[in-house]
Design goal:
heterotrimer, A mainly alpha, B alpha/beta, C mainly alpha, A: mainly alpha, two-stranded antiparallel ribbon, 4 strands, 74% helix, disordered N terminus, B: alpha/beta, 6-stranded mixed beta sheet, 24% strand, disordered C terminus, ABC_transp_permease (chain A), Autoinducer 2 import system permease protein LsrC (chain A), transport (chain A), cell membrane (chain A)
Chain lengths: 346, 518, 338
Amino acid sequence: MTTTLDKPTPEAPAEEGRSARSLVDAVFRAREIAIGGALALLILGTWLANPGFLDDQGVKDLLLNSSILVLLAVGQSVVVMTRNIDLSVGSVVGLTAFACGHFVSGTDHSALTVVLLGIGLGTVCGLVSGALVSFGRVPALVVTLGMLYIIQGIDHAWAHGEQINAVNVPDGVLSLGSGSVLGIPYLPLISAAVLAATGYFLRTYRSGRELYAIGSSPEAARLAGIPVRRRILAAYAFSGAIAGFAGALWLARFGTVVADAANGWELTVVSAVVVGGVAITGGTGSVWGAALGALLLTTIGSALVVLKVDSFWQQAITGVLLLAAITTDRVLQVRTTSALRKRSRR
Amino acid sequence: MEKPDKGLAPVLALRGVSKTFGAVRALHDVSLDLRPGEIHALAGENGAGKSTLIKTLAGVHHPDEGKILLSGEPVVFHGPADARDAGIAVIYQEPTLFPDLSIAENIFMGRQPRRSARRIDRRAVHRATADLMSRLGVALDPRRPARGLSIADQQIVEIAKALSFDARVLIMDEPTAALTGSETARLFSVVRTLRAEGAAVLFISHRLEEIFGLCSHVTTLRDGRHVASEPLDGLTEDDLVRRMVGRDLDDLYPKSEAEPGPTVLSVSRLTREGVFRDVSFEVRRGEIVALAGLVGAGRSEVAQAVFGVDRADAGEVKVDGRVLTAGSPTAAMDAGLALVPEDRRLRGLVMEMSIERNIGLTGLRDVRRRGLVSRALEHARAADWAVKLQLKYSRLADPVSVLSGGNQQKVVLAKWLATDPAVLIVDEPTRGIDVGTKAEVHRLLSSLAADGLAVLMVSSDLPEVLRMADRILVMHEGRLTAEIPRERATEETVMAAATGRAPDTDRTERTAAKEPTP
Amino acid sequence: MTTMTTLTRYLRWDTAVGILLIAVFLAGTGTTEGFANTDNLSAALGDVSEIALIALPMTLLVVAGQVDLSVASMLGLSSALAGSLWQAGFAFELIVPVCLLAGAVGGLLNGWLVTRVGLPSLAVTIGTLTLYRGLASVILGDEAVADFPETYAKYAAYTETMPGTFVPYPVALFAVLAVGTAIALHCTGFGRSLFAIGAQEDAAWFAGIRVKRLKLVLFVVSGLVASFAGIIYTLRYGSARADNGLGLELVVIASVLLGGVDFDGGKGTLGGAVAGVLLIGLLTNLLTLNDISNEIQVIVTGLLLVASVLTPRIIAVVSERRHRRTAAEESVPVSAAP
């Protein structure tokens, strides 16, 4: 009854596919390279202007300052990859730092106990957010915003204006923040280890790839039989665990903790992740890029101090970087898509 | 019910399956047998329950009553994963892939070959994908991301996925709707290969010639009920249509002769880089002009550029001699243009809005009283057109999503006819709507033209083009290649122009020059 | 989707919030000394005046499927700008238009990035949130500028009310604007267009609605209102600081969503959003009067926010079960059943 007009199309030769692939590879790698390059330039420039920037103490400071943000960026990027967001991380860090401090004050608990406590508490927070997002099917931004308020409120109500003093924190815990091995402080080593493990997991394990799949197309993920809700729950639990870990490290590093530690960090973390090339619409990017983004943001802050530029500029620069990053992403995405279309059409 | 013919035992079967959504009975006591090595067609109008049946087999829906039998044993699918593990693969009309991931990852997501410590064996994944591609006879790089693949290639990826887990049952839901002829041919040869390997295939299509060309058995559904299961041998197209519709059809193409009036729409040298170029034509009052061509020839794109939803890079559109502002649908509407788009669920209607608000959306200035939107005027406007177009609805305040496809299309038509246009552009006006409504739409277009409306109709449905149009414009690879008056229009002349085989030496040369020698 | 429709037929969330608002008011009147008097109510309303003002354009944005997270930073930027100009000796009559201009330009940047570059508004405004707050620090550092002219300051403070009423000036302004915005959203073609854009942007564009222009206008208005709220905030507290209104964007969004405006766009009422703002205002006031600490108030806000998005879904699931429906093809990942 119905006839349709037909059209012959020549098959695309294999070489076409290969060149399209290398083009896309280049674009995907470009982000890590670009951020790495910017970071290198920034460090080089600052060092030339003030060689003190890269002396032993300078490097140590840089590493110490960035390690907690890098850690949080790793946790956040796992959530963002699944096309979600976790705005509660800042408040989780604050809560766990205070809780851990409260727990160890005047005792001689070991660093390990504190870390486990932090991770446990953080995981609980992450599980609550994750359960609401995945099983409650409510917008992630709204829920984690609500969780931000709730956790922050609990934290402040508990602290009630008090603070944890370094003198009450056992030395074993504090040495985690100040100690080092072969001249490299523990903190950046821990961050690097978490980063490497997460990066390897996301690349080489089925459940890691499934996180990318969920972010790339939730509908397709469901049809492919991926347990979408459980994976999202796990991503949030991971992000929470990392935030809790970061809270414990915060205590170890600073010793003195007030209730609003890491207050407002959630947006800095999201910025770092997005600058590092993890698209807020999910499915792309790597924890390596996110870590580089975090490193870049921290380095800008330190460089401004060394260059004696008003530190008030830091936030404005971060904002510009963030806008530049998403704009570049968008332009590149439009270009690659149309390039790939043309290739497949020919 | 026909007696199932002898042969192998069914690998997958439905027995007396019923499924209800709220007050709607989507399936009522439906049975179906799928045997290995057999391509089985599923026929029925839109809303007959085909999608529900597919989703039941795919594990998306659970039947309220009845059983699913897998190799004769009753099974319960808790989700798509269960159905997949049972060896059932579904290929949807528009595959849902992961655009950011590579073809190989798309195929093996969740089932990647692993090496020690449960790690993914990346090399094995790529090797297996390359094997699948060569088995299908397709040159697609396993590492290429799915973003930017044509729909045909996306379906190939889906089929490769089905092959990768040795699917025993392959369900194809209108896979050819968006394919070109050669892509369809390639798909069919792949499907025949699978049949030869012993797979059972369930094939759904609106195109009867595809059903007759590919399948050996057919099951027909009407209003969620099982009408017949029978071999296609000895069945005619008319028999099948009668089973689907339940009655003999009135004339599908009621075209009344019209006397063309003055030119109202004039398009000159319209160009959009990489899509179409140098398109010029005119449409007169009282005329139905069809824009024919292959899928991807740029017909919808021309229609959209004329209406201004896409911006043309060069050229101009005149309505009643006045040049339109480029890229402005508002200006086009003011000049008396209307566009009924191809994708009515995404572009034609706001699905969650009510019928009356959807119809009111094109006339927000007309339903005003003292500067504010008057609900009474809005309602009256909608009610008026609902009656004129014989819309079937319960309340005008209901969201359009509850209407059937044909009635949704009537709402889109109402929404645009209410603007009292001088030129109506319709893009695939009858795609995916049932045969009864199709005839109604044709009657409407014909009578509108008789009343002096200029109609530009983009259509892939060749009989519709041949019987409804006064004049046929044919596009090939972004260019207008022929203008054929009604008297000379035949399948052959239109197809020749559409495939670039027009007896126009100048054009054939140009086309030839465009093909690079590999 | 169908289940939501059935749900809204029985109970509309914005009505529920309205009822809750009245209940809180009555409960407050019955239990708390010093709640239901004009002085206290002026204070309660005055305290949320900036939030309320910004919530108006925010409601329009969310209905159109967008969000503007940069509003509080714009408030801070406007405040910092006003402070530094006042410090430099400019007339206050000149400062106000300059701040408003800054707000419009900031909104224009948001709108441009969203409509021309095609970026999601969430990402864009997280960026400008950082940028505008950063610019505020660049302009004013960590200084605080005070001593604004009393002639203007008194209009922002809730001690001064409209003659013959207990309504502070900013609240009166809000009331007028709220009525205007409600009419614009629910009774004009402009409003209908916003709902269409939020529900299905492509369909709106194909119906001849100027999608990009409308979105751009919304972002500009949002920036404009935020900068104006910045001036009110500065005058009300008598202090211009770069960190004025830090984190206020979250309270604004919380109020709007609490009022039943769908974060995914296309659904909601302005009345609901206003009820959401007032509910947060009254509740905060009531809790303060009962000596319940600020921390608990923050927790209550958070719980309300989660409840506002979760409750409708729970009701939907329950009614779904009751109707033995599986909305599987819509959103329930069936496979997640253990």
